[in-house]
Amino acid sequence: MSDLEGFRAETRAWLEANCPPEARGPMGSEADMIWGGRDAVFATPGHKLWLERMGERGWTAPEWPREYGGGGLSREEAKVLASELRRIKAQPALNSFGVWMLGPALLGFGTEEQKKRFLPEIVRGEIRWCQGYSEPGAGSDLASIQTRAEDRGDHWIVNGQKIWTSYADKADWIFCLVRTDPEAPKHLGISFVLFDMRTPGVTTRPITLISGKSPFCETFFDDVRVEKENLVGTLNRGWDVAKYLLAHERTMIGAMGEVAGGRPVGQVALDAIGTDEAGRLDEPMLRARIAELEIDQAAFRLAMERVGDQVKAKQAHPAIASMLKYYGSELNKRRHELLMAAGGADALEWESERSRGGSAARDWLRTKANSIEGGTSEIQLNIIAKHLLQLPGA
Fold this sequence. Notes:
Elements: H1 2-18, H2 45-57, H3 75-87, H4 97-109, H5 112-123, E1 129-132, E2 148-151, E3 155-162, E4 173-179, E5 190-196, E6 202-207, E7 216-227, E8 231-232, H6 238-254, H7 265-273, H8 284-312, H9 320-343, H10 360-367, H11 377-388
Parallel strand pairs: 1-4
Antiparallel strand pairs: 2-3, 3-7, 4-5, 5-8, 6-7
Helix pairs in contact: 1-3, 4-5, 4-6, 6-9, 7-9, 8-9, 9-10, 9-11
């Protein structure tokens, strides 16, 4: 305990000295998010500095081994770091599919050369990744993918199409499922490969969503050369890597229900509605709903920590990620429903972003995809029923 107390004191002092003012407090808009990459765009110089300082310390991936650029922290130390970041209301130093999804897969399945090549760059935010999984004919039934990799000796030639590729138009590299043995059963014959999005033959086309934004893309591969050194795991056993990564993706999506990037719902409501004579939000029903949300968010944060402990101890059920993904998605949708209710008529604005919290209506519409991306809520409930609750006939 004394060691943890010392670590907390050291961490608190370092964060106070190194977290710039611009990277503290609620994010004003999506532009404040730090994604990194070779063409990184930062909202302010302070955001760039925040990534550099956290990346140098390895604290963008605090529990990854130091030899791969991570922080090398124990689970208990990582919890202390997270609590100290919350204390100063620090914004995430890095939002990264590399940290959330690919990194754990490389740690579990990658070669030593792949780990040393990619993981430090991921930690420092120097490489931005996208995910090549879903296809027009392979969504919920992901194992039906048809993107094919033809063996050419020391490399493959890849042809096919992916869809719902988040931020593919901004990514540097892609981790991608391809079919390397078309004669094998559909869950076999799939391989997990990595390649640069600037490789000749790769093109992307953003998809405009109901929110008016285009975070998703169609991605096309026309005779794309992929080196065999970029195969992760065993040839034709990419489904093993894909399943492992999906668990991390679903946990990441679920975490949106606990991590609130914008202004607190209660503050938005106070600004819009005002207070009663007792200094409380002057709308009792809304006040009760906000309190219920904050309690559920706190409980979910503790549940996420508990599952993290179980994962570290190798005691977590493989299907627990589906539970976190489902509940976190619903929690995030609830939060944005309340933001719309709290904002009143101002929350309906569409063209401008004059409000401090950005466009509430666009963000609210975006959350509708939470229960679709990463596996629909219906799929998650089926997994929970079958593998966690062991219901008959599920």
